[in-house]
Design goal:
Layout lengths: L1 E7 L5 E6 L4 E5 L6 H15 L2 E9 L10 H5 L5 H25 L4 E8 L2 H11 L4 E5 L6 H5 L1 H9 L4 E4 L1
Parallel strand pairs: 3-4, 3-6, 4-5, 6-7
Antiparallel strand pairs: 1-2
Helix pairs in contact: 4-6
Length: 169
């Protein structure tokens, strides 16, 4: 909550106006190394502003097989789709629970969710619309070129989201 002090009305009475911005913050996290920073910034913002926080992880499905995308899993030497789905959901759930615990330690109300979609940016944007999110925090990639600097997911979210987006690196 932001408090604007020193505002005086036409009769000379001092007013204290409370303006709450970013009532709902969305932290879009994945299994990259940016999660700690995203969670830290999100929790600090929420604590300062009195915001509710949603934390989501999007599991990307293959367009060829909407159930799971096993290419990465096979590359790691594992062989079964069922194992992949179980493993990736377990990792995502652990990550989300850790984020929720970080927020709860600071007194932040949080809700966590796993989304499965063939298009990660669109899933984040749609979640934000459905839940009337006021601010999205996403991680970036630190390479060269705009798309690589931001990463394709963060670049698309920044470009197409209907609310402000804070890119964290």
């Amino acid at each position: 909550m932001i408090i604007m002090e020193g505002v005086v009305n036409e009769t000379g009475v001092r007013l204290e106006s409370k303006l709450q911005i970013f009532k709902k913050i969305l932290l879009a996290i994945d299994l990259s190394g940016y999660n700690d920073r995203i969670i830290d910034y999100g929790v600090r913002l929420a604590k300062t502003l009195g915001s509710f926080v949603y934390v989501v992880h999007v599991i990307e499905e293959s367009p060829k097989n909407p159930k799971v995308d096993v290419m990465q899993y096979y590359a790691e030497g594992k062989a079964y789709e069922e194992d992949y789905e179980t493993d990736i959901r377990k990792k995502a759930r652990t990550l989300l629970e850790q984020a929720k615990l970080s927020g709860e330690k600071e007194g932040i109300n949080m809700k966590i969710d796993i989304i499965t979609n063939t298009k990660v940016p669109e899933a984040i944007i749609e979640f934000a619309k459905i839940n009337d999110i006021d601010l999205i925090l996403v991680g970036t990639k630190d390479m060269t070129g705009l798309r690589f600097l931001l990463g394709s997911v963060s670049s698309k979210v920044i470009t197409h989201a209907s609310c402000p987006v804070l890119a964290i690196r």
